[in-house]
Amino acid sequence: MSGGESDGSGGLVLLDVFGSPFAQRVRIALAEKGLAYKRAEQDLAAKGDLLRRSNPVHGKVPVLLHAGRPVCESLAILHYLDEAFPATTPLLPADPYARARARFWAEYADRLHFCGKRLWLRRDGGGEEAAEPEAREEMVAVLRALEAELGRKEFFGGEAFGYVDAAAAPFAAWFLTYERHGGLSVAEECPGLAAWAARCSRRESVAANVYPPEKVYELVQEYKQWVLGRK
């Protein structure tokens, strides 16, 4: 799978794994900007030379190669795309204060992933009674903070889909997994955020690059069994 075969991208190659929400951020951004690129799916269990050379510090995806030069870490890549391709639709707002605020909330959205992992990566299975109370409370707090920032806006940046939306949209597909393992309901706790997630899921850039929630849940269950089986 690739985002296009033309050379109009200036030689963009994305090293990624399709199911990675961090890699999905970059694919969403590339789609929103209409940039052609080639995907190079990576095997994280047996990392190849290209990935090791491109990200020698962490050896993780995503890595964007632009004319052979690597840019690592998903949010850094989103920044880079705005600066390297100024003629495309911007993700970050022009106002310096709004840009700083967007960067803060995009980084804050990572808490969904790390807190969610505490909910589902447990040996004892799902259900509200089995969830760590602290992890569940933290997840609800993170969701509510994001909803408060969203407010009554269509997207985090206003009417237009932007930087925070691209950063957080992949995690919206994980809401079902968080609910089943944490004994919570995003729609009940944060109806505005749930509506935002639904709007994002209908965008072509998101739908084409993010697994649907049931698929995410299935993959998480498989991954959980694999991880716990190694312990």
Automatic annotation (TrEMBL):
InterPro entries: Glutathione-S-Trfase_C-like (IPR010987), Glutathione-S-Trfase_C_sf (IPR036282), Glutathione_S-Trfase (IPR040079), Glutathione_S-Trfase_N (IPR004045), GST_C_Tau (IPR045074), Omega/Tau-like (IPR045073), Thioredoxin-like_sf (IPR036249). It is an enzyme of class 2 (transferase). Pfam families: GST_C_2, GST_N_3. GO terms for biological process: glutathione metabolic process. PROSITE patterns: GST_CTER (PS50405), GST_NTER (PS50404). Residues 95-219 form the GST C-terminal domain. It is found in: Cytoplasm, Cytosol. Residues 10-89 form the GST N-terminal domain. This is Glutathione S-transferase. Coiled coil: none annotated. Is involved in the conjugation of reduced glutathione to a wide number of exogenous and endogenous hydrophobic electrophiles. It comes from Panicum virgatum. GO terms for molecular function: glutathione transferase activity. It comes from the Eukaryota. Belongs to the GST superfamily. CDD domains: GST_C_Tau, GST_N_Tau. It catalyses: RX + glutathione = an S-substituted glutathione + a halide anion + H(+). Its EC number is 2.5.1.18.
